[in-house]
Structures are given as structure tokens and as C-alpha cells.
Amino acid sequence: MMRAMVDMRVEVDGRLCCSSVQTASTAEPDPKPSPILPFLYLGDERHAADNDCLRQLGITYVLNITAEPLAADPYAEPRTGLRYKQLVAVDSYHQNLKQYFEEAFDFIDEARRTGRHVLVHCHAGISRSATITIAYLMRHLWMSLVDAYNLVKSKRPVISPNLNFMGQLLELEQKLRRTAQDNNCRQSSVTTADSASDLTADQEIYDPSVDSSSARTTATTTTTTTPSTAPILSL
Q1: Are 111 and 61 in contact (CB under 8 A)?
Q2: What is the pTM (predicted TM-score) of this model?
Q3: What mean pLDDT do residues 122-146 have?
Q4: What is the DSSP string of 182-218?
Q5: Which domains does the chain have, with CATH numbers?
Q6: In the chain, N or C: fewer CB atoms in 10 Å?
Q7: How far apart are CA 184 and CA 197, in angstroms?
Q8: Alpha-carbon span 176 to 46, nearest angstrom
Q9: Rounded to the nearest 5 degrees, what angle is found at the Cα of 177, between the Cα atoms of 130 and 89?
């Protein structure tokens, strides 16, 4: 049984995004995970256990964000060619999910760098895995929380990170902003130092306080003939 969402609007920097409360529903689950980026898929535990589905989509990396055991046997990796990683987390208002952000980013980036496809999933593909996916977009594409949320929502409408996870995403956004500001400050400092260095070099080449006419010298060569012997006087 899937769950329907009752929207709770959350304002971030004056823009609205939604978190939701789950209610029972008989909606049919998606048969395949949702493509978010060309190499990144978001889904549920059924997708992770469906080897045929993974094979069809070319998915060889699976990131499991649940408290349950892996959907597939990790010891089968040599036979299936799949690479699994599990981040143990529950969908609650007390779960610290941000502690896993960097670890999740590294795993997803490994798939991207090697030209592989990766599936991020939790139990229903709604809260935990959606939070990790949104966080990755924020870091990888330097998107705002609202823009990353809306992109994932447009690809997988059922997503609904709980309010605790939304708060952790907001903390990530603030951290990324500080990082961007620090980088800009460092770049400005380097540019200023380079400009000062260039100016000093220019002054060494041309100093207007020095009279250009006296600074220039013209090389001249004078040829003189010196007789090898003294002249002979004739009487």
C-alpha cells in the first residue's frame, strides 16, 4: 500500500516548498525508479531488489538508506556486477541524516566519474532517499534548496522529506553559501594581489619620475687610424 501526501508548506528564503504528512492510499507504485539526472535514479526498495529493472536501466550502483538489511545480497556483487552501500537511517524527526551527506556524495560521485548509473532508495523513495538526492543536487549543481527540491519533485511527485530532514537541508544550504562566499573572498584576494604585483612590475619598467631622455643612451662607434710608424721627413 502506498501513501498519499498532505502538503505542509515550508518557506525557505521567501520561497515555498512542501513537506508532507503521509496518509494511507491505494495508489499504484511506480514500476521503475525516477530518473533525476542522466546517471542518477531515485526509487524504493522494490526497485533495488528488481535485478531485471536495474539491468534495463544500466544501474550498477545502489545506495540504500534504510534501517533494514540490503534488498539484495552484497556478496553477490562479483556475479551481478552491482556495487552496494547502506546508510543506516530511519524516517523520523530525530534522525541525523546530514551526518551521511558527504559519504553519500562520494558514493554517487564515484558512479558518475566511472560512467555508471546509481539508484538512491529508501523504503518508499519518499523521504530519506529524496533528502539525500536533493542534497546531492545542491552540492553537485550548486542549486538552492528550493530549486533542488522542485527539480526532484517534478521528476518524482511523491517525494516528501519530513520536516526534520528539510531543516537539515536548510543547514546544508547555509553551509554551501558560506563556502561559496569564502571562495569568492579568496579569489578576490588573489586577484587583488596579482593586480598589485602587475602594477609594481609596470612601475619598474617605466617610472615617469625618471627623465626618459637621460635614461636613453645611444651607442656610437668611432673609428680612428693609428699609423704603425712615425712619418719620415724629406729634406
Answers
A1: yes
A2: 0.70
A3: 98
A4: HHHHHHHHHHHHHHHHHHHHHHHH--TTS-HHHH---
A5: 34-181 (3.90.190.10)
A6: C
A7: 20
A8: 33
A9: 30
Q: How many CB atoms lie within 10 A of CB 2?
A: 15
Q: Which of 74, 90, 52 is nearest to 62 (CA)?
A: 74
Q: Where are the beta strands (DSSP E) in 3-64?
A: 3-12, 15-24, 34-37, 40-43, 59-64
- φ, ψ of residue 20 to 5 degrees: the values are -140, 160
Position 120: which residue type? V
Do you know the residue count of the chain?
235
Residue 214, amino acid: S
CB burial class (10 A; 0-12, 13-18, 19+) of residue 159? Answer: buried
The Cα-based distances of 88 to 5, 85, 131, 233 in angstroms read: 24, 10, 14, 119
Alpha helices in 29-162 (DSSP H): 45-49, 51-57, 77-80, 101-113, 128-140, 145-155
pLDDT tens for 80-119 read 688 999 999 999 999 999 999 999 999 999 999 999 999 9
